[in-house]
Structures are given as structure tokens and as C-alpha cells.
Amino acid sequence: MDVMNVRRLIPTAALSCAALLGLTALTACGAEGSGDGRKDGRLDVVASFYPLQFLTEQIGGDHVAVTALTKPGVEPHDLEISARQTAKLNDADAVVYLKGLQPAVDAAVAQADLKTKIDASTLTSMEKHGNEVGGHAAAHDHTTGAEGEQGDEAGGSGGEHGHRHSEAGDDPHIWLDPVKYAEVAKGVGAALAKADPAHAADYRKNTDTLVGRLGALDKEYAAALKNSTALTSRVFITTHAAFGYLAERYGLTEEAINGLDPDSEPSPARIRDLQKMAKADGVTTVFYETLVSDKTAKTLASDASLKTDVLDPLEGITDRSRGTDYFSVMRSNLTALTTALTAK
Q1: Is residue 258 within 8 Å of residue 240, measured between CB atoms?
Q2: Which segments of the chain does DSSP mark as H helices, in order?
């Protein structure tokens, strides 16, 4: 992970000087600059990627002009900041980002002279997650007795399929848990109200509306997953470990082919473990996503005679998304999960 972060940070450092040289010209580019945003009285906000863009637009309404650094179809973890984007960031009124998800954004924000920097990772509790997250189905654990004790001692907690499969890291995927996303919404709403006190009442009203919708979504998920007696399995397999918070919230176990970084490669041993686990825990489906390669997921599914389906980590909306916004895609994810977890 450290090597990957260094690789991503190199372009950012190289571009910073170019961004400063081009700053004067860029801010005179009319619609491309933030000047017209301030002329019409709106708060000019830069959001690092889709979930924070959506949240800021919902809370800010007509009082904000939001620009996303991560364009549709771009995998957020791999984002490299251009000189134009760096200039835009420096000229904005505020930035909303998630520290730890996008190293290039973290570096650019640290260098930017902005009065309002809203880091979503400080607005809710963060956890360390590995390849497996959630309460594994104990009835299907094969390692018991003295052997099981040795397994736990060697690899930490988590049973046979526990966290020892990968080193745990800070999991940034908080937006896939509606409860945590609502906590972030409250923090962003408060920050926008402080930055633009003239419209504070509207920000508070919009925040309450969004939090209410997220509360309703949480209840839908809980009814279909946590409180359901129809599930034949509570274990699901994903391409990368993006759904750990969701799994913990609704009493499921996520088994990820890759770790928190979608660019990582699984070991042959990990693939063998997943094949054995799928059979033991009644897993029917391997989930892949639209912004990264589905090759490994489909190969695993084929070798283990499993189905495949999409479970969208909602890192961006494209024409391949099963929905047009956060809520519609989250409900599509719920349908995909319940279908897979109730199949026999």
C-alpha cells in the first residue's frame, strides 16, 4: 500500500509548480473558473468524488456550486490531480474530501490555501478492516479445538476466514453505511452553515431532509438483511473490501478477493480459501463492480460454479450504474444482496 501511495503522489508533486504558474490564466477562463460561482452569490465548493459531491449538492441546494475532482468512470483511488484541477481547488471557497481514500487529493488539499476544508473522515468513526469484515458464520468454521486456537493465535481474531488473510488498514468506505453517511451529512451541513451563515437555515433544513432519507434507507436495509429470517447465507464475496461497514451494520460477512485497494492482487492461497469458504457457507454469487476489472471475480465464480452480479461501491455514477443517484444505486445493491443471500 505504501508503494502504491508513493506512486500516486509523484504526479501530484510534479504538477503543483505547473498549477501555480497557470493559476492566473485559469482563473480568467469564465465558466471554467470559480469566479462566476461567486458572482451569482453561490458558495463555490470542490468535492473529491461522487458520494461527497452528491451529499454537498443535497445539502447546499441552490446556494452552492459543486465541482467534482473525480470524473464519472474514473476509479477514485487512482485519481491524479491535473494543473487545472489544482488551480480550481486553490480558487474555491471550500473543499469536501475524504482523507485516506485519494492520496493525490490529500496532497493537493494540504497545499491549498482554503478557509474551509471539510474532511469527512473526521465526521464519523473510522475502523480498520481486512479482507474479511463482519461476524463470520461460526457454524461453518472448520478449524476447531487446539487447531483453531493456533489459527487465532497466528492470525488474530476472525476465525478460519479471519483478518489474517491481509493486513488491516483504515477503511474509507463510510458512505456505503447509511448511518455513517448521515453522520457525515450532519458535519458537512454544519460546516457549510458556518462558511455561509446567510443561508445557514436552509443548510440545516436540507441536512435534516437528507438525514431523514438516509434513516429510511437504513430501515430498508435492516428489514431486508439484519432482521430477515429468509436469508440462507450471511456471507457474500466482493471484488474489493468496500462493503465492510455495511456488512457490520446489517449482520453480514464480507469476504473480499482484493483488499481495501482495488488494484491489489489476490494470492493463489486467497482464491483457494474463497472457493472452500463459498461451498461451506452456501455462497451463491460473486459480486464485481463496474469501475475495475471483473476478470478475477468471474474466474473465481466460474471455477467454483457460482453466479456473478454487480454490487456497486458507488464511487461514481456512469451509464453502467444501476441507478442515477446514491439512493437508487443503494437500493439496487440491496436487491442484489437479498437475491444472492436468499438463493439456495
Answers
A1: yes
A2: 2-21, 23-26, 35-39, 50-60, 83-91, 103-111, 145-155, 178-195, 200-221, 244-249, 268-280, 295-303, 326-342
Q: How would you classify residue 17: left for phi > 0, otherwise alpha for psi between -120 and 50, otherwise beta?
A: alpha
State the cell numbers at 107. Answer: 496532497
What does 100-140 look like in DSSP terms, one character per residue? TT-HHHHHHHHHS--SEEEEGGGSS---EE-SEEE---GGG
Query: With the C-alpha atoms ordered 204, 209, 215, 217, is the resulting torsion angle positive or negative?
Result: negative
pTM: predicted TM-score of the whole model, two decimal places: 0.81
Q: Is 34 in contact with 90 (CB distance < 8 Å)?
A: no
Confidence of residue 135 (pLDDT cuts 50, 70, 90): low
Distances in Å between the alpha carbon of 75 and those of 57, 82, 252, 316? 21, 15, 26, 8
Side-chain-facing half-sphere of 268: CA atoms under 13 Å: 0
Q: Name the packing angle between helices 83-91 and 2-21 (round to 10°).
A: 70
One-letter amino acid for residue 274 of the chain: L
Q: What is the pLDDT of residues 38-89, one digit of tens each?
A: 568 899 999 999 999 999 999 999 999 999 999 998 989 889 999 999 999 9
* Cα gap 337→332, rounded to integer Å: 9
What pLDDT does 53 receive? 98
| Residue 29: HSE in the Cβ half-sphere, 13 Å Cα cutoff | 13
